[in-house]
Amino acid sequence: MAHFYLQETLRAEQCRPGQVVTVDGDEARHAVTVSRVRPGDRLRLGNGAGLLLEGAVLTADALQLTLRVDDASETAAATPRIRLVQALAKGDRDELAIQAATELGVDGVIPWSAARSITKWEGAKIAKGHERWSSILREASKQSIRAWLPDVAQLTSTKQLAVLAATTRMLLLDPTATGRLTEVAVPTDDRDILLVVGPEGGISPAELLLLEQAGASQVRLGDTVLRTSTAGPAALAILNATLGRW
Q1: How many CB atoms sit inside 10 A of residue 136's CB?
Q2: What sign for the dihedral angle of Cα 115, 119, 125, 130?
Q3: Residues contacting residue 15 through CB under 8 Å, at least 6 positions apart
Q4: Where are the alpha helices (DSSP H) in 144-227?
Q5: Where are the beta strands (DSSP E) in 129-168?
Q6: Under 8 Å CB-to-CB from 150, ≥6 apart: which residues?
Q7: Do β-strands 108-112 and 151-152 pair in parallel, antiparallel, or remain unpaired?
Q8: Which domains are assigned to the chain?
Q9: CA distance 111 to 105
Q10: How far is residue 99's CA from residue 175's CA, in Å, rounded to a whole number?
């Protein structure tokens, strides 16, 4: 399989077969010094906004490499979009969740400071956490050769989630819910679908009440209790099948 790299500045009009494109910065440095890419090797490139291309490397050094485009395609953005609202969790469980969700095709993630979140993003940690999550999504997108790079929203409170519930289809993953996610009907509109996953202790009763009153619905995945690192990816896999993505 060809190596895959992201160059967000690429545009479709620059990437027709026969044209030469340039990769620079960290991507070029990683390709040449870590992956040992050399002239003649084949690479795949994307811009994270639907464009994918493949071609042969013409020149390669630590600062820049050039590629002759042999094939290019554009993929439309998915509708409705599925976003994972992932509560901050201790250890790396929230990071494991967003990494797997990216590989499974999530369209965006929202870091949530839930009532029962042990981990907190405060002060300088807010920007650092956002940067860390963005890096995880980028690397997972490259690993899975995704045409679209998911976005990371700003840190969100429960009250802010309640506002989102009014304009999206918000599904609260809770093991005590009576309805199953597999019973959720296929959407008939393009509203974003938000999968809300709580931290280790789950979503608190007060949060469930507030979000339900704002328009969210509780659903469960099955008869067992999943970790916060696995609930989101599991739910996403179900929606992929429900929406015909898989």
Answers
A1: 20
A2: negative
A3: 21, 45, 51, 53, 69, 72
A4: 158-165, 205-213
A5: 151-152
A6: 102, 106, 107, 108, 109, 137, 141
A7: parallel
A8: 2-72 (2.40.240.20), 80-241 (3.40.1280.10)
A9: 17
A10: 23
| Pick from 140, 198, 193: nearest CA to 170 | 193
User: Which residue type, as a one-letter code, is found at position 81?
Assistant: R
CA distance 53 to 23: 13
Retrieve residue 80's tokens.
Answer: 């409705």
With contact defined as beta carbons under 8 Å apart, do 46 and 67 qualify?
Answer: no
Cα separation, 73 vs 82, in Å, equals: 23
Euclidean distance between CA atoms 136 and 158, whole angstroms: 24
Structure tokens at 42: 């084949």
List, for residues 190-209, the tens digit of each pLDDT value. Answer: 899 999 999 999 999 999 99
Per-residue pLDDT tens over the stretch 93-138: 999 999 999 999 999 999 999 999 999 999 999 999 999 999 999 9
CB 69 within 8 A of CB 18: yes
Distance CA 26, CA 124 (A): 24
